[in-house]
Amino acid sequence: MSTPSNNENEDEFSLIRRFFSSQKVKRADVAKGIGDDCAILTPPPHTQLAISVDTLVTGVHFYPDMPPQDIGYKALACNLSDLAAAGAEPAWVTLALTLPRADSHWLHHFSEGFFSLAEQYQLALIGGDTTRGPLSITVQVHGFIPPQEALSRTGAQVGDEIYVTGTLGDAGFALSLLSKKQIHHPSYDYFLSRLYRPTPRIQAGIALRKQASACIDISDGLATDLSHILEASQVGACLYLDKLPLSPALAQETPYQAVHCALSAGDDYELCFTLPPAHAPEVTHALSALACPVTHIGTITEKKGLSILTKEGTPFALKKKGYNHFG
Amino acid sequence: MSTPSNNENEDEFSLIRRFFSSQKVKRADVAKGIGDDCAILTPPPHTQLAISVDTLVTGVHFYPDMPPQDIGYKALACNLSDLAAAGAEPAWVTLALTLPRADSHWLHHFSEGFFSLAEQYQLALIGGDTTRGPLSITVQVHGFIPPQEALSRTGAQVGDEIYVTGTLGDAGFALSLLSKKQIHHPSYDYFLSRLYRPTPRIQAGIALRKQASACIDISDGLATDLSHILEASQVGACLYLDKLPLSPALAQETPYQAVHCALSAGDDYELCFTLPPAHAPEVTHALSALACPVTHIGTITEKKGLSILTKEGTPFALKKKGYNHFG
User: Fold this and answer.
1) Which ipTM did the prediction report?
2) Domain that holds residue A73
3) Are residues A171 and A271 in the same domain?
């Protein structure tokens, strides 16, 4: 199985070094970064670690012709979104990259997209692996959070209000444009930027510490991800269809498409969280100061399950609930 | 690109839950394990973290017909070997699994092999991701080490003695048996067990803290991995061909094959380390108490590069230096 070589030309080791050893972020808590068998890190005292790992596979999570700089950005953004949902502050990242071949053009653009986002959060690349195989990217992020302050899916209480950041459904609509090759759609660039360059809501997550009773990021669609909160918290919810925040571009589409994308399409990477009503003024003020849009979309109920009401108060039946790799 | 479903039958979420939520290891430092957006961990005070990540890809790192229990074991063993090389004590692990389909037979055996090794080291599975795609496994391990005591590739000094644990070349010879389908070889089972079930030298690595001047695990072949120490430490080395420790089974093969496997084949996951001569008695005694074989195989030299001497004192020319994915 092994294919020994004389290490001529560009080999695995120099490939890794060239693109991933020149990062600008320097952190005092990284005692030893990439280049040895292990990274050695010094966690700050009296702090918990939040850790999340995600894999993106070509042809499953993105089309093979997605620009490499966007793949690099998004692979990291999806993971940072998980830190955001926990209320954690990003610190370190590892990158396991499987590539069909050593393509320096691809690596150049991929690492550009990856590092552009990492630098925004002073996130240090501390290690990784580069292997040959079908294109696949596994990123693991590590963040800090004060003890007992991590947000999670459990904790939503009957009577809590349900909020989301940003707007919903743009990424899902972008996927439908891509699948139909509708490159002349007037808002094509806008929708694609929402799919390819989601904004991890890191600062919003930090502002939600000690405020939100539950929080999750919307990767599989609002209905599916909110259901995770409901199951973990053993409560139900009622959503108001007309409150779902839509971008001006998505609001131009048919109501059926817009609502379907907002409820069921994944890839938005906004936060969905629950708040005791008494916390609402402080939180909405804090998020507004961060220029992070936030919308009240529903209420936690004692009655289990997720019900959705139209503006007229009639129940709305949701057909497709979310993304499922093995469905 | 998304393939929404009604979450009928065995879906992604229950698949993960069923096989990976029933681990026996419980650790007080895991505040929140698998099942939320992030794992939340409490690192012990005054301790550094050692982190390593590795990917195994089907058809590249293992044959597609490798038994899943051995794939599960080995994917973890390769990573634990990196912790061993740093002298770290294993604590937490994440698993990112890409599978062509949700195959419960495969998952059952894979998780059995994975957990059998994890339990030996009280290693807790804290998170992961399961995606659809060509079979690939990315494992990240996290271990603890007292501040400033991590072993690394740098630090080898002229005059230090070079040692390896265990025996060399068995895994490489197993690969040649597999590639030639020599299933009737008298030591077939022995060689395959060395390839499929390497022993991570965790206790040996811990015993080397404050003793070894440099350490690495042999994943790419002794010559290649020792060269990493030499480059990082800016020294050279002389190896004695007749000192290379061979298993009784490998010693039965032709000297050319045995030496080639011992020097150049990867996958042994033994430790190669350098010791100031004054530390040798204490270290060899400590490793002997751990029933870990250890052999003196060479010396660190001022002259750069790796030279290899035969028993007669003549230079030995090494043809193939190690494994290179993109070579």
Assistant:
1) 0.92
2) 14-145
3) yes
Statement: the pTM of the whole predicted model exceeds 0.80: yes
Q: Which amino acid is at B164?
A: V
Residues for chain B: how many in total? 327
A3/B94 touch (CB, cutoff 8 Å), yes or no: no
**What is residue A171's DSSP assignment?**
H
Asked if A41 lies within 8 A of B48 by C-beta distance, the reply is yes
Contact between A1 and B60 using a beta-carbon 8 Å cutoff: yes
Measured between alpha carbons, how far is B135 from B118 in angstroms, rounded to an integer? 21
| AA letter at A116 | S
Q: Say whether both A199 and A67 belong to one domain.
A: no
Same domain for A95 and A194, yes or no, is no
* Residue B123 per-residue DSSP state: P
Nearest CB among B31, B45, B134 relative to A134 is that of B134
pLDDT, tens only, A99-125:
888 888 899 999 999 999 999 999 999
The verdict on residue B319 lying in a domain is no
Confidence of residue A64 (pLDDT cuts 50, 70, 90): confident
Between A and B, how many CB-CB pairs are < 8 A?
A: 300
Do residue B37 and residue A48 have CB atoms under 8 angstroms apart?
A: no
Token code pair at residue A213: 């009773």
Q: Which of A11, A52, A94 sits opposite B327 (nearest CB)?
A: A11
On chain A, the residues whose CB falls within 8 A of the CB of B51 are 38-39, 41, 92, 94, 126-127
**What residues of chain A lie within 8 A of the CB of B172, using their CB?**
2
Q: Return the structure tokens found at A206.
A: 């930090």
Question: Do B169 and B139 fall into the same domain?
Answer: no
B182-207 tens-digit pLDDT: 999 999 999 999 999 999 999 999 99
Distances (CA, A) of B82 to B241, B299, B303: 26, 23, 28
Do B145 and A325 make contact, defined as CB atoms within 8 angstroms? no
Of B10, B38, B150, the CB nearest to A51: B38
Cα–Cα distances in angstroms (integers) from residue B105 to residues A209, B8, B265, B283, in the given order: 42, 19, 32, 44
pLDDT of residue A4: 29
Counted domains in chain A: 2
